[in-house]
């Protein structure tokens, strides 16, 4: 049924052929002399300025979660926030949050491509230094998470960076072998979150087929790229399952997911076939599609959910009663299990008279049980929030670290799941460098102008639309439009992010007073140091083991953030007037290149390098 028509690549790449060998060499082509840290004169203009700008937005966003439990994320503006604090929350939630981590992700993808480009130009090693770079980044992230704050993004970026290696260099045999070999770890007690790693490897391998494979096959009488043919097969299989879910009661609960998945793969099949060429454009096309498609489909289901009446699971007395019964049974079972462990000789028999008979349940009964389970999850989360707040406001530092470590170990690989979203932005960032859009920014100002003129109104327009539907959400409530709001808001992040980046570039090359935004360059050159320094300052100021100022109003939080940023900008200028790298950047480079880079500058006085 499927036969190969053309094959222009080598069989060792993901999926069997490489379409970008001229763009990205195989590992064997770059494993040569040792790669060195770049000199100041080699830095790319604009990247450091953009990175510094992104740090400002990251601070505005993160500071809220040093004054609020991270477990409440996803509920919007708290109902008890009013006045200027509400306005500050609204500004950050709809014009900052989500827009700046996307910029950071773009920058990481650009950094990857810059490092790879230099390795190609010099014929020096890339894979080993970059693996060391990823490991160091993961260690920074774990320490940040455990010692200071659960909202770290570095650990997640380490997984994403590893995924990018799979996409660009992975060979399909090793990808499959890794999935098969690692899947067993998911069944080890306490290692359930490792499934995100295995799923990530499969996902990155799937992207690699699109990015690097040139094979054209004949399927059902149609000629199409191999990737599109695979997607079409998946579309047919998932569509059959989705169709069955509308008629088979036992499959009813998977109806929405299967329907959405079949639609997604149908769209991917069409777009990947139509826009398979040119090969260089696959990076940004894949990135935009991977990022946007889930939210577009989510908007459809969000509209459907918004049409339902406004209800709360807590309004159902039957659901509340059933939830209490389930919780009591759970606690009794846990107590019995503990007793059995303490006294192995004793035996406890279940009261089978109270066991529910395995009779078919009506849809109303299933809904009642789902509502009861939702209530118990919400109540359990409330308890966890109380524990979290106690650790943040009352615990001494050793107890705080124990709390953070326990939370981290509950899902040590959970951050790998964020790589699914970040990889899309990494790919767009790679394209920005490989297409020389950012490396020759002065020659591409027209493109940046078009991106800004299109992206800003679309991004802000979607954000305003989202805010008009809902600005907050109470757990357990449905029909309030919150799902639709989140889908629209997430979709808005990408065009807004690209517009922000474009505006910064245009300001930098404007030749006007706006070009003074270059003052952020040293701040951005020390991004890792400044990012982690922000967390140290916030934790020391807000947490109970520090100065105990937890609960600062939202507007005051932004004032605090602006003050700290100004001091960091001044510090960055002072530091880089004397040293080549920020303290942590120096450590990161030492690990990456496995040598101690020269630290002091030969001439005092700062000459900022924009990039």
UniProtKB/TrEMBL annotation:
Residues 1-20, 334-373 are annotated as: Disordered. It comes from the Bacteria. The keyword Iron does not apply. Residues 433-594 form the DUF418 domain. The keyword rRNA-binding does not apply. Pfam families: DUF418. Signal peptide: none annotated. Residues 348-373 have a biased composition (Basic and acidic residues). Keywords: Membrane, Transmembrane, Transmembrane helix. The chain crosses the membrane at residues 49-67, 87-109, 130-147, 153-169, 196-213, 225-248, 283-306, 416-435, 447-471, 491-515, 527-546, 558-576. This is DUF418 domain-containing protein. It comes from Undibacterium macrobrachii.
